[in-house]
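Batch job 17 of 40 flagged for manual review because the log was empty.
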Amino acid sequence: MPASEFAGVPDQFQRLWTPHRMAYIQAGPEVLRKECPFCAAPDKSDEDGLIVHRGRTAYVLLNLFPYNSGHLLICPYRHIATYDQATAEEVAEIGALTQRAMTVLRGVSRCDGFNIGMNQGSVAGAGVDEHLHQHVVPRWASDANFFPIIARTKALPQLLGEVRDTVASAWDV
């Protein structure tokens, strides 16, 4: 059967399919108000929590709303809001996990660079401002296009589960 006979006759619009976001959409915004996602993630399986590595005082997981494929978050297990509340051990492990995340992402995705940072407080742009987390965002020379600027849309080439499996399998290699 030719494509023109399928439901949804082709038109001038392009569609970006992001099925991984449906779980969050169906849960609704009240989920973040009821339960801290970074406190809840370690109680789930690695696959369900999108966790790629569990350390002693901190862990690494994929961002549910990534800027780019492979966008990782590094979180202490303790529910603390700001970097100055972290212990020396937590700071050291967050740093070591950040370095390892860069090495792993460079190996599995051949990225050209990184954005790394922490937004401290909602006024600074933190989506979850009650639980400290550091972003490690892989970047490619060719990843910039008009979508984020004009259409406020990011095109992500891989599903979160696939990215999690790839990063997790390369973590301890």
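Reviewer: the log was empty due to a logging misconfiguration, but the result itself is present. The chain has one domain: 18-168. Unflagging and moving on to job 18.
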